[in-house]
Specification:
alpha+beta, Penicillin V Acylase, Chain A, nine-stranded mixed sheet, seven-stranded antiparallel sheet, 8 helices, 20 strands, about 25% strand, globular
Length: about 400
């Protein structure tokens, strides 16, 4: 067994929303895959996705062997944990999803706003490379309640069973990923020992169906939600990550997203699949911050390019960009790590009237992750529940944990 740790991050109390566990696995990539699959099967009731036809299984297996051999080895371990033969052509062993309900194979367009992030310019910092992001999502059962269906009995809400996954392979980079609903590729933040940081945001401007299963079906190449794991396995810098992406076929399933990729030197870029399927990179400019919300930065890079929107809708993707710009203008230099957290706190998602704010119903900042990539480490705090409306505002006061820090 290569499971070094599988414990609660903190003591869970009755009524707390988030119940994160810290899992550390070590060994060969096959051993890591086996142990994560064993945990996913026994503790999270993970059901492997099913391919529509054996040709997709064979194509995916050969793709991984050629383009992502670490994942090909982990897949072997997954198949072994589920008692599948090495030449199985039915199940998708490249993903360990859990707590997804009523996904629609035909797909749809999810009415979601979600997350925000900021990267402060290293040129104006105290020497650190500071990134902070809010993981915003509806505190409900996905996809059942999102699609206004009755949730299955005994179901879990989105990211309620959060994972802090630390992998220590015999060969390759050590990494830490934090997120939920996937034991091989926890959505949504990750960092490796070289200080490469990758995180995921909803991007409705992109291409692909939403609300679909995140594994199996006709998936070919790499779903964009799995790209962060591949980059953490293989890359130490933004430039290496760009090249790795360009060497792969990237597709979309489950949710349209774009990626923020940053490194310990202070470089950063946002990778997007445009409406025509083009691979687009928007880089941080020297001496400037980089803000990421939920629109295509390649298409709408600055306020002068924004379409018409309601400036009073505080969670609108363009409104958040303006809020972040105002917050940034009020900072003093040199920047410190706490400044990055203060920036994302300015767009914290917790509203009384979600329609007025243009947030999703019961959408909350389920976690905040703030990093100094030069160390490197992740500091994370989690949503526990609502307290009550804040008088004179549309904001809901909520309870968050203190920060917990995970590093190498």
């Amino acid at each position: 067994m290569s499971i070094l740790k599988n414990d609660p991050v903190f003591e869970f109390k009755e009524g707390d929303y988030s119940k994160p566990r810290h899992i550390i696995v070590a060994g060969s990539h096959e051993e890591i895959g086996f142990d994560l699959a064993t945990i996913a099967k026994n503790d999270y009731d993970c059901q492997l996705g099913i391919y529509d036809d054996p040709i997709y299984a064979r194509g995916r297996k050969s793709y991984m062997e050629l383009h992502w051999p670490e994942m090909a080895e982990r897949s072997k371990g997954v198949r072994r944990a589920y008692g599948l033969s090495e030449d199985d052509v039915v199940y998708d062993s490249n993903s360990l999803p859990y707590d997804w309900y009523d996904a629609k194979k035909s797909g749809t367009s999810a009415d979601l706003t979600t997350c925000s992030a900021v990267m402060l310019p290293i040129e104006k910092s105290d020497g650190g490379v500071f990134v902070s992001r809010n993981y915003d999502m509806m505190a409900m059962v996905m996809w059942s309640e999102v699609f206004k269906k009755k949730a299955p009995e005994g179901s879990y809400r989105f990211a309620e069973r959060y994972i802090v996954l630390e992998t220590r392979p015999d060969k390759g980079y050590k990494s830490i990923q934090v997120g939920g609903n996937e034991a091989l590729h926890p959505y949504v933040d990750g960092i490796n020992e070289k200080g490469l940081y990758v995180t995921v945001f909803h991007d409705p401007d992109s291409i692909g169906n939403e609300g679909t299963p995140c594994s199996g079906m006709k998936i070919a190449g790499l779903p964009l939600t799995q790209v962060p794991t591949m980059l953490l396995d293989n890359c130490a810098s933004v430039e290496e990550a760009k090249l790795k992406i360009l060497q792969n076929r990237v597709t979309q399933t489950m949710m349209r997203v774009h990626l923020l990729i940053a490194d310990a030197s202070g470089n950063a870029t946002v990778f997007e699949l445009s409406g025509q399927g083009e691979y687009c990179f928007t880089d941080r400019k020297a001496n400037e911050p980089l803000f990421v919300t939920n629109h295509e930065l390649a298409k709408y890079p600055d306020p002068g390019s924004y379409p018409e929107f309601d400036i009073h809708a505080e969670h609108n993707t363009y409104a958040r960009q303006l809020i972040l710009r105002d917050a940034y203008a009020g900072l003093g230099t040199p920047f410190k790590k706490a400044d990055a957290t203060a920036m994302t706190d300015s767009v914290h998602c917790s509203f009384v009237d979600s329609k007025k704010a243009e947030s999703g119903p019961l959408e909350r900042t389920l976690s905040n992750c703030t990093c100094d990539l030069t160390i490197p480490e992740l500091s994370v705090r989690w949503y526990l529940g609502d307290v009550g409306p804040i008088a004179g505002t549309n904001h809901m006061q909520d309870r968050m944990t203190d920060f917990f820090t995970f590093g190498f």
